[in-house]
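Memo to structure team: turn this sequence into structure tokens by end of day. - J.P.
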Amino acid sequence: MSILAPSPDFVYGNTRLRARKAQLLTEPAYDALLDRDINGVQEALTQTAYRPDLESALARVSGKRALENAVRDHLARTLDEMRSFYRGRARELVDVLLARFDLQNLITLVRGQVRAQPAELILAAVVPLGPLGNSSAEEVARRDEVASAVELLISWRLPDPDTAATLAHAWPRFERTQDLAQLEHALVTAHAHRVERDLANAPTTLRELIARERDATNVLALLGLRLSLQVGESTALPAPPDSGRFLPGGRIGDNVLETALHLPAVSDTAAALAGAAHRRDWQGPLERYPSTGDLPLLQRELEAARVRWALRLFLSGDPLGVDVPIAYTVATENEARNLRLVAEGAADGEPAEAVRARLLLPDSPGRWAA
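Reply from structure team:
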């Protein structure tokens, strides 16, 4: 007789998130923010769940920076509160869902230190969430020497022991080559492997969310390599890094990616990638790419597909599983992205129509415009 492990308990947390979903900004709420200056956007947001974050940010700074800080802090606070709703296996799965912020913060800190950016500028880009979202980030960002900052990350085993060990292994090579892209690729790959292990026996929807992110990264990297050859920036494909050219965890395997990379026509490459992805919402963007050659547009379209896929889980997903945290997390991230675009448009005096065209609105089925 075998005793089955209890299923993850998402009931309490999902009930809380469904209530909080009403606080997410709707399409009319975004429309009310357009055609305003920074002060007007801030005033409108004080009537929303952003009020405490705005008040806190305005006590320290002003203008666009205050708005950006409020958006960042609201994102972190909201997702940290979401994490607190879960225990046991459910909490472990939510931690995997939020692990992207650990990697984002690590890359932000390392990149900022290597580029000798001021600590305040580095910290403004750190999302205060997870092991690198607190005083640890400030300690690293304020180190006078980049080597000292890296040593701190390694000794504190941040953001996790495996990624810190990769940093320790990759750092001496960076000191010799000064190849920041190679260092970042090693860190991203190590983190991807760690997440892949954590996804063992995870629900299909969580694996698909991560797979969409990994596949998009790999597809864009592959097409970028082809484009650099096409415009003469490179004369031959570079050798794959030690950690491999592509990230693990996607639907599109390494063998398909390598084969697609060497196909003679970009249309054949795009078709091969679309076929291997097995996603209906990827078909159109990849079919259009050969005629446009517009990688930023493709990136936006694949991100739009990911967001819309995740938001549908509010209605079609398992109400007693990880689908609700997935939908809520992606919706909150998308809202932060939209508000940063609103802030940029307000600061630059950009026409409302131009700003709106770049927003991915949860209530709008239209395609994300270029």
